[in-house]
Specification:
The chain is mainly alpha-helical. Helix content is 82%, strand content 0%. The chain contains two helices and no strands. Helix 1 packs antiparallel against helix 2. The longest helix is centred in the last third of the chain and has 33 residues. The chain is elongated, with a radius of gyration of 15 Å.
Length: 61
Amino acid sequence: MAAKMTYEQAMKRLEEIVEKLDDGSLPLEDSIKLFEESTKLAAFCNDTLEKAKLKVTELAE
């Protein structure tokens, strides 16, 4: 995953991975690699959303 990836870029990549995995034509090893990448991307997105939520809460106070 790129160090300067945005939330939007990460979500787009996740969508691409889901499409590839849903296709079912990838070898198992490739599917595992994509799954590993997707878990990292999902964690990044979750972290980004949590930070945004905290910032909104701070600003609302």
